[in-house]
Amino acid sequence: PPAPQAPPRPQPVPEAPAPAPAQVQQQSQAAPAAPSITEPAGVANQVAPAYPMRAVQMRWQLNADHIVRLKVFVGEQGQPLKVSIMEGVPGTFGFDEAAIEAANKSTYRPAMRDGRPVKGWTNEFRYVFPKRR
């Protein structure tokens, strides 16, 4: 009769290799990159807008202040590239257009990233068209 076979021995489970000491040291020394510091573009010299003649000619709400809120996208040399109206004056009385014209005539400081000028938006600012009597 054949000899009884011994039950199979359990095989050891392979362990994950421990990281080499050089790898552990590199991981602990690698610090996350510091975020680049960005300073938004700013207004250097703000030109006052002209009161729109359409509103004067139509005598449209001359006894109220009108406000246009906007932002300007500024190039690396401080030139205005794009004006975006955040909140304008409703109607076709020319307030938004006058604010855009004044914003394009104003001068700006470019945005800064890591000490270098870059393209960027200004913070929101506003033009106020005061009451006229």
**Amino- and carboxy-terminal Cα gap:** 123 Å
Our Rg estimate from Cα atoms comes to 33 Å
- Strand proportion, as a percent range, falls in 25-35%
Percent of residues in helices? 10-25%
Helix vs. strand class: alpha+beta
Task: State the oligomer.
Answer: single chain
Total DSSP helices: 3
**What order do the SSEs take from the amino end to the carboxyl end, as H and E?**
HEEHEEHEEEEE
Integer average pLDDT = 83
Low-confidence stretches: none
Strand element count? 9
Describe this structure in words.
The protein is an alpha+beta fold and 133 residues long. It is 19% helix and 29% strand. The protein is built from three helices and nine strands. The protein has helices at 21-29, 53-57, 95-105, and strands at 38-39, 42-45, 66-74, 80-87, 107-109, 111-113, 116-118, 120-121, 125-129. Strands 3, 4, 8 and 9 form a four-stranded antiparallel sheet that branches. The protein has a three-stranded antiparallel sheet with strand order 1-6-7, with no helix packed on it. The radius of gyration is 33 Å and the shape is elongated. The mean pLDDT is 83.
